[in-house]
Amino acid sequence: MAGLADSGSNPDVDLLYDINGLAKDAPAWFDRVMEYVGEYGLLLGVVLLVVWCWWSVRRRGDEDAASTVAALIWAPLAAGVAVLVNVPIRGFVERPRPFLDHQGLEVLVEGKTDYSFVSDHATIVMAMAVGLFVAHRKFGLFGIVLALFGGFIRVYMGVHYPTDVIGGFALGTAVALLLSPLAMALLTPVVKAVERSPRAGWLVRAGGRAADGQDAVIPESRSERTSERDLAA
């Protein structure tokens, strides 16, 4: 697999130098910002999108709130599964980081000693973004845009080849989509049970409303209606 890192007329390496070359021409403060965004910011951004989507769904309280929340739970789980799948892939390919095989790169993050293919960052962020897209199209599109930008930054930082990032995008997308039906079949009944719970129903619907649109605290509601009928009698 060492041929993946060979230079010459390799467009992967050429694109690496073109994108990473932008870091050389940029001010030091801008590189520090890109470093932070590439290491933490984009992942945090997608996580916040998932939380924002959950808050929006539970506040709106639509009939399909349970299935949407189940899909939102699947988003981070998909990222975790994708990273586990990536472990044997990285061990099989054993592709060194680009700065180990190529001179003159502007490396913004030191201490990267693990293998380069497939990019964990690209895998995690894209898996979460696609999982978010399964739950909510609008939020998911924003997440996918963030994931694409994050992949660009990883190459800009000099820690990944473009194909490392593309491989991460493909892996994250495949795991999030292919395992989504199974995940939804397992998670949706659990979330619906939570939705019907008097104490935890607020996690799915604001005010703990059950799927039929009534309050989850049904016993109190019934007792109140019964007392009202008695008074009317």
TrEMBL record:
Compartments, as annotated in UniProt: Cell membrane
Record-linked SMART domains: acidPPc
Transmembrane segments: 40-57, 69-89, 115-134, 141-159, 165-187
Keyword set, alphabetical order: Cell membrane, Hydrolase, Membrane, Transmembrane, Transmembrane helix
Coiled-coil residue spans: none
Main localisation: membrane
Stretch list, region Disordered: 210-233
Superkingdom assignment: Bacteria
Pfam families assigned to the protein according to its UniProt record, in alphabetical order: PAP2
Basic and acidic residues bias locations: 221-233
InterPro entries, alphabetized: PAP2/HPO, PAP2/HPO_sf
Domain Phosphatidic acid phosphatase type 2/haloperoxidase span(s) in chain numbering: 72-180
Protein name per its UniProtKB record: Phosphatase PAP2 family protein
Organism listed in the record: Streptomyces dubilierae
